[in-house]
């Protein structure tokens, strides 16, 4: 009996202690992890631009440092230093690229936009600009789902956008880009490399040259769907969709998704 009474007293003490905890104090709220802002580099480039390979190497270094899904690059072949496709040359220049080249008043190449903040800048400034943008918090989250039909060579793109605590108004832009294209490129020594590999090359806009309107209330979600045809000669396994939401303040968030890989 001498052993039983202390045991009972201990049990009563435990129950009393538990009951003394207020209902609101039993659950601890853990705030969701903030979504960091990824960075879009719009690299205005050309196959006869001898300093453009230097800019491409700079992008590779940034992607090694931060991750290729955090620093997302799109090579926009455009302007007088770009080559148009022909029977004898694998040219990567597009009318879409020239439209952007003119709109942003690109004066020299290599030149690029970092999250569409300010005017195009020389590649020597990209590292610091990227670092600054990575410190910002995103106001919208983007999730891409891409399904590809190899028979029809068509991809279906589903984009889900969620505002993160504040209303968002802007545009959703979807681009089709391709990696691993072997094509001629003028190098810094002035010589031409016919075995050069071009990556993240802009091929076409999926939902219009300037995208489509997006308006999100606080913590709201919106979904958009679109289809894109993969042209003959393009390698679906090397292609990705780049999606970003932008407005007059710049790019709010950007992401990418391979067409053939989940």
From TrEMBL:
Instruction: State the Pfam families in the record.
Output: Omp28
**Listed PROSITE patterns:** PROKAR_LIPOPROTEIN
* UniProt cross-references to InterPro entries, sorted A to Z: Ig-like_fold, Omp28
State what protein this is by name: Outer membrane protein Omp28
